[in-house]
# Entry
Amino acid sequence: MSIGPAAKVIEARTGSRLEKVLRAGHFAVTAEIGPPKGADGRRIQQLAALVKDYSDAQNLTDNQTAVVRLCSLAAAVHVLNNGGEPVLQMTTRDRNRIALQSDLLGAASLGVRNVLCLSGDHQRFGNHPEAKGVFDIDSVQLTATVRQMREERLFICGEEIKAPPRVFVGAVENPFAGPVELRVLRLGKKVMAGAEFIQTQVVYDVEGFTRWMEAVCAAGWHKKTFILAGVTPPKSAGALRYMSRIPGMKVPEELIRRMEKASDKLREGQRIALEIINHVRAIAGVSGVHIMAINWEEAVPEIVSMAGLYPRP
Amino acid sequence: MILARPKTVSSILALVGGMKSLVVAGCQECVTVCQSGGRKEVSCVAQLLEIAGKKRGFPFEIAQVTVFRQCDNEYLVPLDVLMEKADACISLGCGVGVQFIAERYPTVMVIPGVDTVGGGGTVMSGVWEERCAMCGECILAETTGICPVTRCAKGLLNGPCGGSVDGRCEAGTDLPCAWEMIYHRLKKQGRLDSLTRIRPPKNWAHSGSGVMRKVIREEVMPCLSVLPLK
Ligand code: SF4
Ligand code: SF4
# Structure
């Protein structure tokens, strides 16, 4: 694995729309779609149709929180069929290097042009806590693998790939987990491994995020990758409190109180999301936002419009 | 040492219900140290089985034996006579011991009396922790003597996941995040740059997920033929 840092070059290397938008210097918007716990693809199709014009790409989560759902690859195809631009999320929790590389080839053959590499939430939190976690490779290794497959046309084992997967490669980072120095080192490692874009954990703690971005910019990583800040409109005070208990999430207490007091919770939730978008937009080095409206994808068009980010390029 | 946890006597009883003659075999090595299969535990299990046998109306005939090491064939000799008339042997050795006994006495049912957990050590009286998953390719030199294969819940090799908070692992609040520990230790040693090195995928063929491992070292094998003198 010999991939160097993913320098921000002007010309796009894949057929990805997200890549084009970012390399053209636009402030990008991505939206998350959570696949259902059933074999019905209609909801994904509806959501794709709903958010596709308000976002440059749509993330399909991969058995998020280790709960079994319709697979992200099939969900990505539903999005493609409805005119969207899927970002295929791939975790290393459930599949070994054979399955991951194979799924990537399959996804690329179906027209998927973006992939997001994650390790995945630990299976202990999901609905099958007795499952064996795979973790054959980690998210950094998966990122490097995708780049190696794309550019060097080689599988991990070194065998040649005739038709390499042309996908734009992303990874995730959590600005709020542990020492900032460690989190920046870790981001740098993902960039060195080949991550061309980074989607962050949900930002509620704007100050903490600002501090992390300062350190990221001081290290120069913002010049070598596109950073998209995670934004989740809270639906209720309860939802915020629930999120505050998720490992690696920071939710300021005053935000929870603000939601408690609000008479129109949904409006207030959208307003909070809007404020955060405006805030992170002003931070140097931030290239876009990733809106994760969990179980509330319907809120995306309005938030994007209110933020003045509609129409999309 | 190899860590093990005692199985419940009721689960053992369920397997020996109709039997008469039992051998309860302990081991003086690891399972003695982690107090799950030494002489003391053998006597404890034997007594509980005896009480259960009396309760059911016809008592067991139980022989107790604790050998120096169950995972070495030569130390199993004291079992030979006892196993001649045994209906079953309950081994309180680790999974290795159980298998060595089963191999030596193929006509007798051997029952594990403990659940073998892994390679670990004593952290305080009554608490043992896993430290080594026996991956077959040790990387401790690069990770400041903290094993991420075992101690990181995801076995990550390139730094922490996004779930570590205040030094705790996302998979359990009572567990420290291995990668945060490694980070602090690297910092103390002035070796933080080691965190920027991308570790390639690990060769799990050396680990327990490959084919059964065998260690062969000719230099310690007995000399089978006399070498001609020069
Ligand atoms: S790296 Fe492998 S051999 Fe070394 S302590 Fe960890 S599991 Fe054991
Ligand atoms: S929190 Fe730390 S120890 Fe736990 S899975 Fe993540 S990196 Fe590993």
